[in-house]
Amino acid sequence: MSGGGDGLGKVEVRLKWDPSPFGETPRHLDIIAATYSVDDPYGRPVYVVHYDSRSPDGTINMPRHSRTGMGFGFVEVMVLEFDRLAPVYGRVVVGVAIHQNDRPRTFGEISHAGVVVVQGYQQLLADDFARVADSTATTVAEFVRDPSGAWGMREMIRGFDSDPVLFTAEMGSPQH
User: Fold this and answer.
1) How many beta carbons lie within 10 A of that of residue 102, not counting itself?
2) Global pTM value
3) Nearest-CA neighbor of 157 among 120, 121, 100, 114?
4) Which residues contact 87 (CB under 8 A, 6 or more apart)?
5) What pLDDT is recorded for position 99?
6) What is the pLDDT of residue 52?
7) Strand order through the sheet with 10-16
8) Virtual CA dihedral for 118, 175, 160, 46, nearest 10 degrees?
9) Residue pair 18/167 in contact by the 8 Å Cβ criterion
10) Average pLDDT, the chain
11) What are the strands, taking DSSP E only, across the chain?
12) How far, in Å, CA of 150 to CA of 91, rounded?
């Protein structure tokens, strides 16, 4: 677990990818966060945040979203404010899913894709999805609240072969 000191505060998950080649359907990736209660950290998510939503209290939101990638660096950003997250939540899993429009696409088909997790100027995680090249979705990180209330992060790169809707239901499972 990383985090250090008093635990994590405001964290950003940033996503990048290049646009599709000319004439092809746009490639659309999304950051997704699933929040779990302290009482059931591996059960159903209490709520899910993605490009079209935010957490009920505003502690998890997406200030930047892209439907096409742009090739200009990190074009999609999710902000998680762990220092403000209510004590009833004990676990948050963040992942990335590829929209499956005209045909199934995998991370291996998305050029220059990558994700970073940062807190301020400190990079907590960086990945290029090479380990999940044959997958259509992947978890990226698991954030867990310890008994003192401090949040920590663990890298959790696990590939899935599902669409974004099914992925939100299975991404927090303890086994895959």
Assistant:
1) 8
2) 0.91
3) 114
4) 38, 145, 149
5) 84
6) 73
7) 60-64, 76-81, 10-16, 114-119, 122-127
8) -60
9) no
10) 88
11) 10-16, 29-37, 47-49, 60-64, 76-81, 89-98, 114-119, 122-127, 137-145, 151-160
12) 11
Find tokens 């998950």 and name the residue: 13
Are 117 and 141 spatial neighbours (Cβ–Cβ below 8 Å)? yes
φ, ψ for residue 166 (rounded to 5)? -65, -40
| Amino acid type, 120 | G
CB atoms within 10 A of CB 158: 18
Beta carbons of 117 and 11 less than 8 angstroms apart: yes
Q: What is the mean pLDDT of residues 100-124?
A: 92
Residue 137 to residues 30, 42, 65, 105, Cα–Cα distance (Å): 9, 19, 17, 10
pLDDT in tens, 72-93: 667 789 999 999 999 999 999 9
Tokens of 101: 């429009």
At 154, list the tokens. Answer: 């663990």
Over residues 52-69, mean pLDDT: 75
Nearest to 169, CA basis, from 66, 36, 29? 36
